[in-house]
Write a structure and sequence with these properties.
The protein is of the alpha/beta class and about 575 residues long. It is built from 18 helices and 25 strands. The strands form 5 sheets. A 9-stranded mixed β-sheet has the order 2-1-11-10-12-13-14-15-16. A 7-stranded mixed β-sheet has the order 7-6-5-3-4-8-9, sandwiched between helices. A 4-stranded antiparallel β-sheet has the order 17-18-19-20. It binds adenosine-5'-diphosphate.
Length: about 575
């Protein structure tokens, strides 16, 4: 069954009446030949455990029952308890019924990290609708493409973000309602019958008593719960359709001790946006664990983020390396002593950056490797007990790796040309492939099927090594590797050595076409404010660390590097400018 038809067959309340609680049905379990408890002809038998589905509603219900007094704080200005968040979520669930949003329909969100967005992340999937988080940094053309492709029925949008999406409204006739979320902005709201006020909608909802899970019985844990589009750097964006089962299992993964290990005593701050694979699943994990949540709101201002980490006594935070870099100048001006785990992912964390944090706070930046297609967390870096005896230099090298796969996630590397599996010896480089219960098995509307192997593994497009202990080390994206005179140069490794210069804030290395060598590396560098470091000094700094033919042909100094919609370095923009005459 394709993902598309899976959405289409969902049935449920669309008319304002919640369905009667129905007995929970078994999920599509593989049939064993024997009856439960009895051996079949093949000698295998079904277990006799309850086939209750894994549901996002359970995450909400657990937080409400066990941790009602814990807080969700937004931007340091609004503090609500999980009991209050649950009350709003119930009202929102029933308000969606009243709006006639059918089960299975996609509900778009175009919003920052705040409490109202969190409530949408709960109410929409818990009522069998599909949460489609839209990246607010996309161009109008991309936004229109994905809202249309997803067939969003309703879109919830931050008031301050209206100017970025409302001009597209007439080109998106399938969206019946645009619901405006108050976000402290006084942006003008157009007078249009399609526009509704979020808080009025919530006030009209019914905060029904009793179990959420029973009120919106989920028959099948494999029903779609969320839709997130990849950034589409290589072709149109593709939709990754999460299920309740994949989301709950991924959420439990974030609780695995020794990796991220979210627990009741944590205060979790997802700086990474909710539109990026539901902020790496951190809000769901925090609620399941009973941790408090700190949502930064719409601002990524370094002083704002540092103040929140200090005043809220944040213990776990997740952000892309660019954000961690932006906090460095003021790191020692705040009391960040409560932190225990700072996750960096989406692109490689330079070891120098991680070490800066370790020196200042005693806490390094821990690699979190993932992809939208992997829900997104697939591996977690850092040292383990076995590295206690290692030298500091060895430990730095371990921390530079993307880490060990999460429980239930399988990884392998294969030869790009032959497709044959390569040894886990820390040396062989191949394409990283992933399989597991929270890894995509296909894309929405069956697009991009070449992203999967014949035996069902996801092809990540990352080149990596795996060592004997299962540590992944990313060498490059397949499209970023530089081939000079027939030899490969890793852009990531070159960036790491250049970034080890104390004046380098950011660096991106790309291939420039070259008539003699086919491709040669060129480094684009952002220097610390006021630095007068020259290309010659950078060259002298890296010469002892890399092979001679790896030395970049040019250093181009910039005030900022171009970024993609997800805030990553846009190497394709740099490649275009390098090719321009
Ligand atoms: P897209 O593939 O659309 O850019 P993703 O955000 O899903 O969007 O990006 C996934 C890619 O980001 C991975 O395949 C990998 O190349 C890169 N990435 C993610 N986490 C890390 C990490 N910790 N270290 C290095 N690269 C990473």
């Amino acid at each position: 069954m394709s993902d598309e038809s899976r959405v289409a067959i969902v049935t449920g309340a669309a008319d304002g009446n919640r369905p009667e609680p129905a007995p929970r049905r078994a999920p599509r379990a593989p049939r064993a030949p024997g009856a439960p408890g009895e051996a079949g002809t093949l000698g295998v038998m079904d277990g006799l455990m309850q086939p209750r589905p894994l549901t996002i509603a359970h995450i909400l219900e657990r937080a409400e029952r066990l941790h009602a007094h814990k807080h969700v704080t937004t931007a340091g200005t609004e503090r609500l308890t999980y009991a209050e968040v649950a009350d709003h979520t119930r009202r929102l669930a029933t308000a969606l019924d009243r709006l006639g949003v059918p089960a299975g329909a996609r509900v778009g969100t175009f919003a920052g990290n705040h409490r109202r967005h969190l409530e949408l992340c709960l109410a929409v999937p818990a009522t069998k609708r599909v949460l489609h988080t839209i990246n607010i940094r996309l161009s109008a053309e991309h936004i229109e493409y994905i809202v249309d492709h997803a067939e969003d029925d309703v879109v919830f949008v931050d008031r301050g973000l209206l100017p970025r999406i409302w001009p597209s409204a007439d080109r998106l006739p399938r969206v019946r309602h645009w619901v405006v979320l108050p976000d402290g902005s006084d942006m003008a709201i157009p007078a249009d019958p399609r526009i509704l006020d979020h808080d009025e909608l919530i006030a009209s909802g019914d905060p029904f008593a009793g179990s959420f899970e029973d009120a919106f019985t989920l028959e099948d844990e494999n029903l779609a719960s969320g839709l997130c589009y990849t950034s589409g750097t290589t072709g149109p964006p593709k939709g990754v359709l999460y299920s309740h089962r994949s989301t709950v299992l991924h959420c439990l993964g974030t609780l695995a001790a020794g990796l991220i290990g979210l627990s009741e005593s944590d205060v979790v701050m997802p700086i990474v946006p909710l539109f990026h694979a539901t902020a790496w699943g951190l809000p769901y994990g925090a609620m399941m664990a009973g941790a408090s949540l700190v949502l930064p709101g719409g601002s990524a201002d370094p002083a704002h983020l540092l103040r929140l980490i200090e005043t809220e006594r944040v213990t776990v935070a997740g952000a892309v390396p660019t954000v961690w870099t932006s906090l460095v100048p003021d790191l020692r001006s705040y009391d960040l002593s409560a932190t225990r785990c700072l996750l960096g992912g989406g692109s490689a964390v330079p070891p120098a950056l991680s070490e800066t944090y370790r020196a200042a706070l005693g806490v390094p930046i821990t690699h979190s490797w993932g992809m939208t297609e992997v829900s997104p967390v697939g591996a977690i870096g850092g040292t383990r007990t076995r590295h206690r005896e290692a030298t500091e230099e060895q430990r730095v090298a371990v921390r530079a790796a993307q880490g060990q796969p999460m429980p239930l996630v399988n990884v392998r590397i294969v030869d790009v040309e032959t497709g044959g599996e390569l040894p886990r010896d820390g040396h062989a480089v191949g394409e990283l492939q992933v399989a597991g219960p929270w890894v995509a098995g296909g894309y929405f509307r069956a697009e991009g099927e070449d992203g999967f192997t014949g035996d069902g593994w996801l092809r990540t497009g990352d080149l990596a090594t795996i060592d004997a202990e299962g540590y992944l080390r990313l060498v490059d994206r397949m499209e970023d590797l530089i081939k000079s005179g027939g030899e490969w140069i890793s852009s990531i490794e070159l960036e790491t050595v250049i970034a080890s210069h104390p004046d380098v804030v950011e660096v991106a290395v790309i291939a420039r076409p070259d008539p003699r060598w086919a491709e040669r590396p060129v480094a684009y560098v952002v220097l610390r404010d006021g630095s007068a470091t020259t290309a010659g000094q950078l060259l002298r700094h890296i010469t002892p660390m890399v092979a001679k033919w790896w030395l970049p042909d040019a250093f181009v100094f910039m005030s900022a590097l171009p970024r993609t919609g997800t805030g990553k370095l846009s190497k394709s923009a740099l490649r275009d400018s390098a090719r321009a005459p």
